[in-house]
Design brief:
By secondary structure, the chain is mostly helical. Helix content is 62%, strand content 6%. It has 8 helices and 2 strands; from the N terminus they run ααααααββαα. The protein has a two-stranded antiparallel ribbon with strand order 1-2. The model has no long low-confidence stretch (mean pLDDT 91).
């Protein structure tokens, strides 16, 4: 008899707001934005081709004849992740990887016809998503905001590489 009374006395679950110190943390905001971006990408751009794969295809188009390792930093991937991404895209027929004539360890990347087609279609949808993601901002500031996000990304990468952080005290 006590159990049903306890269940009735419980309040319904309510979504709790994040604590103020969490909201003030830039990493929390970045993680929320990234999670929302992944969800928007999957729904509105492509549920199969990932953002990193799109970045690799874009970089191959921008820098034809480049090797896999050289393009990894351009798309913000470490070399082992880049190798995995490239292997998957090669299996799907989106890119080709050939040995460099000067160094057999280096893989030269090229878009296949299927890769060109996929990139064109996904680029169109990506640009539409980009416009929508920045729609809450004044149009004249959108380029500036995108630049600031990239500048923050570069700075955060540098912070991640540091051996230690300076104590502000």
């Amino acid at each position: 008899m006590g159990e049903p009374l306890r269940r009735r006395a419980q309040k319904p679950a309510v979504a709790a707001a994040p604590p103020a110190d969490l909201v003030a943390a830039p990493g929390y905001g970045a993680r929320r934005m990234y999670q929302a971006y992944l969800a928007a990408w999957n729904r509105h751009v492509d549920a199969v081709l990932t953002g990193p794969q799109f970045a690799v295809l874009s970089a191959i188009r921008a820098y034809p004849g480049s090797d896999q390792s050289s393009l990894a930093s351009a798309v913000a991937l470490d070399t082992s992740t880049m190798a995995d991404v490239c292997r998957r895209m090669e299996r799907r027929g989106l890119i080709s990887r050939t040995e460099s004539p000067r160094d057999a360890r280096r893989k030269i990347l090229a878009l296949t016809d299927d890769g060109v087609s996929a990139l064109e279609e996904v680029t169109r949808r990506t640009r539409r998503l980009d416009r929508e993601l920045l729609a809450a901002l004044p149009e004249e500031r959108r380029g500036e905001i995108a630049g600031l996000l990239n500048a923050l990304g570069a700075h955060w990468e540098a912070v991640a590489e540091r051996g230690h952080l300076d104590d502000p005290a």
